[in-house]
Amino acid sequence: MSVFLPRRPPANLPSLCPSFAGLISLTARRHESSARRTTKRLRTKPDPSFTSSIPESQINDHIVFNPPSSAPSPYHTPPVFLPPNDPRRQLLVQSHRHANPYEQTERRLPPIIKHHQPYEKKYHLREKEIEEIRRLRTEDPYTWSRAKLAVMYGCSPFFVGIIAPNEGKRAEEFKKVEEVKENWGRRRRYAREDRAKRRKMWGRDE
Amino acid sequence: MKALRLLRWSGSVLSPRTRPCCFIHQTQYRPPFATNFLRFQSTAPIQYTPNIALEDDGKSGKAESIEAFFHNAPTQEERETILSQIPSPPPGQAHKSARLSALHARLMLPPRLPLETLARCLVDPSADIDSQFNNSSLSILGYDLLGLYTSEAVLCRHPRLPTEVMFAAMWAYCGPKTIAVITREWGVEVAAAPGGEVDPGYLQCKRVEAGNSSVDGTGVQVKELPIVATDSKGKPTFAEQGWRRGASSKTIKGDYFGDEIQRTELDYAERPELRQEDLQRKLEKGVTLEQASTNFVRALMGAIYLHAGKKAAYNFFKAHILSRHLDFSKLFEFRQPTRDLSRLCAREGFESPVARILSETGRKSRTPVFVVGVFAGKDKLGEGSGSSLDEARFRAAVGALKGWYLYSPLEVKVPSQAERGGQWEPVLVDGGEVVV
Amino acid sequence: MPVQAIRTTSTARNGVGAFILQCKRLDFHYCDHWGSSKGMNTFLRSPLLPRFAAAHPQIQIHISPRPNTHPIIRGLYINGREKVICVRNLEKEQILQKCELLRDATGEKVKRPKGGRVVGSLNESVRGVWDPYHGGNKEIFGGRIVGAGR
Fold first, then answer.
1. Does any CB of chain A come closer than 8 Å to the CB of residue B164?
2. Which of B7, B21, B43, C101 is deepest in the core (most CB within 10 A)?
3. Are B170 and B241 part of one and the same domain?
């Protein structure tokens, strides 16, 4: 809570009174004349979160729920993660409606980052089609890439990779990437390495 | 659960000189079997010189016991000669060491633990190969006790911890590195070289040669020498064979830190000569300070259990090991948390997780900040912030997974509490970590 | 590999479980001839020292002469440092006070904590570290403030 100093009287300004500038202290002094203004400034209103929606009669008979303005601690288990027989589960529901603000009908959920298409596994490919995929992929792996086959047969590229792995092409692609990396200069290589290190720190929560 | 009366059949573990009674009736006490008490020429690695007039009592052995020798009031010179020839300080010296009794008081050890046993705990097998005088047998017991107490404390308080993290938590509480630190914080000093004349208050071990010390004054450093493969090393480790070990292999075949056990009892049963070979190698090459302190703390734990009972052992563990601070949330390292979280939600029957932007600032600036929450339906599972949407989503998933794994029940009673006279209560057993 | 673990060590909190007195050893040095050792010599002969030693069995006590110098007390600590106090011309009660000072010290250099209100705790605060993105935020949809977020 900050306390504001009373405005300096003009006599204290060094530019107006150069000879006394060194003698007069620039720190604020409390005088009878300024006491009223100082105490008035100290009398601050409480934060609205402490007073709102509480009738005067219940002012001393309520619990203030003021969540901390900090990131949640990993030691606070979210209510959904509590086992059904944990007493905290009931307590959280009973104690205050703030346990989950999004349960209220008027609260909207925040916007989603990325809308994924709901993907359902269909399990529709039979032995014959799988043989066909394998044949195409061994014949010409560059024409029949995983993505292309996946679109054609309505499955995921990951599944194509499982049923028809092509080690030869994989090694070749790796070699190509390695060759490109060989030509990188110092700055680019360092930048990439640093980025990988930073990414590793995400998982360690550093 | 029926409690074991370890003290009753611990005679084979405790050598007779370190029974509790010998602390009380120190002068009157005589061992029932003199043969147990003696340090024989055949077992002691160094021979006593014949010019010391040790009485030969014919039947029981070549040399009289050291205790009896001191009892006969030898001259100062004789005393020093014999002390310099035995590998570790004799038990009788324990009461003369201020350092040892200061250590006993500093650790607030139970009064039933005699100084002789404390002195024995400080003798590493690398200093004295004789298992009647070193701490090897006590440290085996202490190793198991530490494992039991730590694992129940970790697992009952955090029943959902993944196996790898559980191993890391065990390692953080009672791993060799931590125990070496504990030994230092207890103010235990290490003897420069072990021997009978050394104050028994020092940790006695033969130190392995430093990597940067020169070989015979040639200027070549020890670490630069080629590693000579010894034939007695046994089978190659999994890492040497190029295998990556999974959690189940670590659980079944590893110790309680998930590390591979070099020698199992099965190996020793197959080839009994291995045990002596291993001991001999330790005696020749020495051990690191970390290994010696590990043996000491484990042996002390075992000694307290044998002399003062379960309750004292658990209290000692609680005071010195469990009271240490460990932030469990810093033990995790996730590679693909978003994938793990969606698998977890599918397994537990929640709606599939969706990342939503809670707040953001400076999207088009050089330093944006996004705060992203992961939601399953209307319930927020976790939250994270980052300078890109990808990072924030990743961190939010990490937060949600930690929220799941770090669940801790409100009131826990560990199983060993029932053994110490409490009521046994079942603890939560979780379905286990997410398997992808 | 779903989750890997990072190996760390736990940190000590002296006094939370067991309390380890940081003073390991006290060395008392005296001189038989110099007058500055008069108080020290009476202290060593008085019952004060045995009483102090009996009250603190975790401290080793060494007494040795150090001729033709002022008397000193040297405290040795678990962190490997030592602290020396010269007790010339002090009375025995004052020397006992110095012993207690050495007993209570940690062996660290005496430092003034910077900032005046330094809190040294391993536990995180109940309300966490403040950041500007939580608490009192306003939710905006289409340029319209719809409510307070948290």
1. no
2. B7
3. yes
Q: Are B319 and B343 in a shared domain?
A: no
pLDDT on residue C123? 85
Which of B294, B328, B362 terminates a domain? The answer is B328
Q: Which chain A residue is nearest to residue B389, measuring alpha carbons? A: A113
Tell me: pLDDT of B47 over 50.
no
Q: Into how many domains does chain B fold?
A: 2
Q: What is the ipTM of this complex?
A: 0.89
Distance from CA of A71 to the nearest CA of C (A): 7
Its domain, for residue B364, covers 332-405
Are A100 and B404 a contacting pair at CB < 8 A? no
CB contacts, 8 Å: C124 with chain A: 73
> Based on the domain organization, do B196 and B291 belong to the same domain?
yes
CA gap B145, B280 in Å, rounded: 27
Closest-CA distance, B149 to chain A, in angstroms, reads 23
Helices H / strands E in chain A, number of each: 8, 0
Among A152-166, B65-79, B235-249, the range scoring the smallest mean pLDDT is: B65-79
User: In this structure, are B389 and B283 located in the same domain?
Assistant: no
Co-location of B253 and B140 in the same domain: yes
Q: Could you tell me which chain B residue has the CA closest to the CA of A112?
A: B356
Helix (H) / strand (E) element for B98: namely helix B98-106
CATH architecture of C23-104: 3-Layer(aba) Sandwich (3.40)
Half-sphere exposure of B363 (CA within 13 A, CB side): 5
Cα of B44 vs its chain's centroid, Å: 27
Contacts A–B by Cβ distance under 8 A: 91
> How would DSSP label each residue in B332-396?
EEES-HHHHHHHHHHHHTPPPPEEEEEEEE-TTSSS-EEEEEEEETTEEEEEEEESSHHHHHHHH
Q: Is position B118 within any domain?
A: no
pLDDT at residue number A94: 67
Tens digits of residue pLDDT in A35-50: 888 888 888 777 666 6
From the list A77, A102, A112, the residue facing B354 with the nearest CB is: A112
Average pLDDT of the residues of chain C: 88
- Residue B24 within any structural domain of the chain: no
Instruction: Give the end of a domain, one of B277, B309, B328.
Output: B328
Are residues B214 and B256 both part of a single domain?
yes
Contact with chain A for residue C54, Cβ under 8 A: no
Q: In chain C, which residues have their Cβ closer than 8 Å to the Cβ of A107?
A: 147
Say whether B67 sits in a helix, a strand or coil: helix
Enumerate residue ranges in chain C where pLDDT < 50. 149-150
Residue B58's pLDDT band (cuts 50, 70, 90): very low
pLDDT at C81: 96
Question: In the structure, what pLDDT confidence band is assigned to residue A65 with cuts at 50, 70 and 90?
Answer: low
Question: Are B170 and B287 in the same domain?
Answer: yes
Q: Per-residue pLDDT averaged across B239-247, rounded?
A: 77
pLDDT over 80 (residue B336): yes
Closest of B105, B108, B18, B21 to residue B67, by C-alpha: B18
Report how many helices (DSSP H) and strands (DSSP E) chain B contains, helices first: 17, 4
B68 has a pLDDT exceeding 80: no
Residues B254 and B298 in one domain: yes
CA angle B25, B97, B324 (to 5 degrees): 100
Amino acid, single-letter form, for residue C40? M
pLDDT score, position B40:
41
CATH number at residue B352: 3.30.160.20
